[in-house]
Specification:
Structural class: alpha/beta
Strand order of the largest sheet: 10-9-11-12-14-13-20
Strand content: 15-25%
Distance between the termini: 71 Å
Radius of gyration: 26 Å
CATH architecture of the largest domain: 3-Layer(aba) Sandwich
Number of domains: 3
Oligomer: single chain
Length: 676
């Protein structure tokens, strides 16, 4: 069924096979231009799925761009949400919005997020990105069609590596049980994941045999043969009595010579930028759509550039103003180095890797979270590194098995998956059994930026903190992450280390005090050439009060922001701040919290997290331990009960009002309430 007019039941456009082949080239070209303009994205998988997608959206699926919520439309669910640029290209080709709009991929407020958001763009059936969830939704949708007697089909697009997730197989089982012949699954079988081939990460075996054993009709095709693709979809629609899966054997990076079958192009834009052997220009030349002249490409890239200028202007206007700029590295003095916080985890794991009682488990993202430093250049450690694939629940269970036998087991992934998806396994197996499972809660908060809400962990401080028998540490920079990782390694029971992905200010050094379970007090002492040298650090147990006006209690990347806020408050208003670096959230240093509250009588908590997740922990500690006759005013800085979105990390920090300038404004107002 070609694109449809739902009102008069007429065909809008019926593409021939040759036209679909040409349209796929156009979609590939826009896909590469948008990823280049964004500076990030997933060219490999978007290029491999594009021929199938062109056929599905332009020839097979029944849908109407003028009526996106048409009740009788076919539903297309993208479980593989990281292929979002391909979704946007398909919807643009179908007429939901102009192709030119997709060039603002991954930019703040554009709607074209790193993973699809159904609330932002028409034609998207499901906000997705957490792998393994789409097929179950498609099963529910197909069941609903049968229940309501509505003639539509449900399609679900998945990757091969996604089949590591157990939830996929639960959905496969249920679809067969209900004999959902109005459901078609599509597997992009390109053989590559982030950490290597599917055989290296987690062997899939024969997907054909596995699906058939579950009771599915299986159609295997060359995923780049347009006639075979169309034929497979038609065969699936005609088959009765069971769901159908189309397994398309594809080439990751198809159509771009330097990206074909290259693991590194899973999630990276053209390495050479606009020109060169691995560049945008070379990609467009390989794809071979003649309409993409230099002039046209220049014009498209200008759209993205102009949009970004608007975002930059908006962020500058949103930032509270003071007598001068206090932004990072704007002044000739107070300079700070920016280093990815994740490096500290990798360095510590590398250093401790010589201990044969330490094992590590990768979840197809080892390089990104720096777990690869455990085995990189250390072949003798390979037998202590185990890939569990994209299977976070099983990852915790396997690590628990090692921990039960006396090993210190490290696991890790994006925090939202490592601690969110696997929460039940952490609770029941790791915590209840008090097993030494150390969880790298990587890319915490909004530090993943353009990946968007599905990959931004903004809830895990709260959901982990209330588990019994677990340790939760939230270090402020790469050095503190190193210290925290070493501190938890040999503790009895499980631990979580929450750290950021991107470069954040380095505010500590080897001489900075660090004692697990004890908060640090940080005090601004005056301008210095280096930002870190302008502050004095003291263990909370050793600190003597200095009659400060307010306490700023922070964890993680918010500690540097609180430090910068203290600088602003002193310079602009003469307000003295006591900063508490709460690198260990559980167990919490309640004595230092209590002392600060009673001596300053004003507290602001600062978290890169849903507001109150950390703040309410601190508020509870203070208000259940402080003297009842001590006055106290309190406020919180954090994400205000919303999901994250795509954008550069610093843009999101400003947009969510998490930066020092916002802290300083709240602090000044709070001090005014205290003294007014």
């Amino acid at each position: 069924m070609p694109i449809f007019n739902s009102k008069d039941k007429s065909v809008i456009k019926d593409y021939s096979t040759e036209e679909l082949i040409q349209k796929a080239k156009e979609m590939r070209s826009y896909n590469m231009i948008s990823i280049h303009a964004a500076g990030s994205g997933h060219p490999g998988g978007t290029l491999s799925i594009m021929d199938i997608v062109a056929a599905l959206y332009l020839k097979i699926a029944k849908h109407d761009p003028e009526n996106p919520e048409w009740k009788e439309r076919d539903r297309i669910f993208w479980s593989a949400g990281h292929k979002a640029p391909a979704i946007y290209a398909a919807l643009a080709a179908s007429g939901y919005f102009p192709f030119e709009d997709t060039i603002n991929l991954r930019k703040l407020g554009s709607g074209f997020e790193g993973h699809p958001n159904r609330l932002k763009l028409p034609g998207i059936e499901l906000s997705s990105g957490s792998l393994g969830q789409g097929l179950g939704v498609a099963v529910g949708s197909a069941l609903n069609a049968n229940l309501e007697g509505i003639n539509y089909r449900a399609y679900c697009i998945m990757g091969d590596g996604e089949h590591d997730e157990g939830s996929v197989w639960e959905a496969i089982m249920s679809a067969a049980h209900y004999k959902l012949d109005n459901l078609t699954a599509i597997v992009d079988l390109n053989g590559l994941q982030i950490d290597g081939s599917t055989d290296e990460v987690m062997q899939l075996g024969s997907l054909k045999d596995k699906y058939e054993s579950f009771g599915w009709k299986v159609i295997e095709i060359d995923g780049h043969d347009m006639e075979a693709i169309i034929s497979a979809f038609n065969e699936a629609a005609e088959f009765k009595g069971a769901p159908t899966v189309i397994i398309g054997r594809t080439v990751k990076g198809k159509g771009v010579s330097y990206a074909e079958n290259v693991v590194g192009y899973h999630g990276s834009p053209p390495a050479d930028g606009r020109s060169g052997e691995e560049s945008l220009d070379r990609a467009l030349q390989d794809i071979g759509d003649p309409q993409f002249t230099k002039e046209k490409v220049d014009g498209l890239l200008k759209i993205a550039s102009d949009y970004q200028k608007t975002i930059d202007k908006d962020m500058l206007e949103k930032l509270p103003k003071f007598s001068k700029s206090y932004w990072w590295n704007d002044a000739d003095e107070m300079k700070v180095d920016m280093v990815p916080t994740r490096n500290g985890f990798g360095d510590a794991l590398d250093e401790m890797g010589s201990d044969k009682n330490i094992v590590a488990h990768g979840a197809d993202i080892t390089s990104s979270i720096r777990m690869d430093k455990f085995y990189a250049n250390h072949p003798e450690r390979k037998n202590r590194f185990f890939s569990v694939g994209i299977a976070e629940a099983n990852m915790i269970q396997v690590a628990s098995g090692f921990a039960k036998e006396g090993k210190s087991a490290f696991v890790g992934s994006y925090g939202v998956f490592a601690t969110g998806r696997a929460w039940d396994q952490i609770r029941t197996t790791a915590c209840y059994n008090k097993l030494n499972v150390n969880i790298a809660d990587a890319h915490g908060g909004i530090s993943v930026g353009a990946d968007g809400a599905t990959h931004q962990a903004l809830e895990e401080i709260a959901v982990i903190n209330y588990l019994p028998d677990i340790v939760l540490t939230v270090p402020c920079d790469s050095n503190e992450t190193y210290n925290a990782t070493k501190a938890v390694t040999y503790m009895d029971g499980p631990s979580v280390i929450r750290y950021a992905r991107e470069a954040t200010p380095v505010v500590t050094d080897k001489d900075t005090p660090y004692e697990f379970g004890v908060a640090n007090v940080v005090r601004f002492r005056g301008w210095a050439d280096k930002f870190a040298d302008a502050f004095k650090w003291t263990l909370g147990t050793e600190y003597k009060g200095e009659n400060e006006d307010i306490t700023l209690v922070a964890c993680g990347p918010m500690v540097p922001e609180a430090m910068r806020a203290a600088w602003i408050l002193k310079e602009e208003y003469g307000i003295e701040s006591r900063i508490l670096d709460v690198h260990t959230v559980k167990p919490l240093d309640k004595a230092t919290m209590k002392k600060a509250a009673q001596e300053t009588n004003a507290v602001i908590t600062c978290e890169e997290h849903q507001v109150g997740g950390f703040g309410n922990i601190i508020a509870g500690a203070i208000n259940t331990s402080k003297d009842i006759n001590t006055p106290l005013v309190m406020d919180m800085v954090g994400v205000q009960d919303t999901f994250g979105e795509s954008g550069a990390p610093w843009e999101l920090m400003i947009d969510f009002e998490l930066v020092a300038e916002n802290i300083a404004v709240k602090a000044k107002n709070l001090v005014g309430k205290k003294t007014g």
